[in-house]
Amino acid sequence: MKKYMIAAFVAIFGLLSIVMPIRLDQTAHAQDYTREDSTTEDRTPKDFVAPAVFQAAGPDAASIQSSIDSFRAALGNPNNGNAGPLTTGHREINWDGIGGTLVTTDPVTPFNTFLNTRGSQFTTPGIGLSQGPPSGGPQGGLAVLFNNPTYATTFKAFSPFRLFTPVGSNITNALFFLPGSNGTMPATVKGFGAVFNDVDQPDGSGPSQDKSNRGASTLIEFFGADGQLLFSSSVPASPGDGGQSFFGIVFSDARIASVRITAGDVALGPNDEAKHDIVAMDDFVHGEPQALP
Length: 293
Fold this sequence. Notes:
The chain has one domain (6-21, 39-291). The protein is built from 5 helices and 16 strands. It has helices at residues 6-13, 40-43, 61-75, 141-145, 151-154, and strands spanning 18-21, 29-30, 52-58, 90-93, 120-123, 128-132, 163-167, 171-176, 187-188, 191-197, 219-223, 229-234, 244-250, 258-262, 280-287, 290-291. The strands form 4 sheets. It has a 6-stranded antiparallel sheet with strand order 1-3-13-10-15-4, with helices on one face. The chain has a 6-stranded antiparallel sheet with strand order 2-12-11-14-8-5, with no helix packed on it. A two-stranded antiparallel ribbon has the order 6-7.
């Protein structure tokens, strides 16, 4: 567990449930770059309307539940499951499989399990992406997958029993397609949000393209269909083993074509300690994919 000043704990746990549009001078930034030498403010369109931002952090699942429920409502209910394609509602992935099995999957990229049913594909520049519990089951969970027994207590699943993580990298990319098209029809969504486990390193102003997230270990970036960066933010931290964090945004229309997640400052493997903030992911929630024109 990392140690922080008491003031940092107060700030973090005061952030248990926040739902608000974020201004460009805060840690989340909207970007639409048109000139290589221009500043963030110069490159942000005057008519840009910031998305609604939903974020929360706390010691357990209950700490972030209300923010996630508000996010779901903003995307539009119901959860469409494997139906569709549809025009309203949203999709969810909890990584737990039928009956919440404890089996750990072999790393693979692209991860296409939900490509046809939910309209989402996941890739990593690393070895692959895997689902698994912190420990337990036939393969021992993440503790065995990464040969690190401390992960059995470092992580706690938001929705039992499995977490989601890249292997050999801390980067996960999400792409969206029309459900039922088997990845042949690219799509966009109006919002995307993710649950993170054990984010210890707090927000700051930092070493990203616009110098907005220094000190934060976990970053989420949203891109449009032409590859432009629409929005980026660090993810709120909850110091202590197994803390839960959530971050998501919702635009007024479906404009997010892809998402890039940087989870922790290094890939899973080392101990979670002062030198490294090791972060896993849990539930993903996104808007109903809409086919590109």
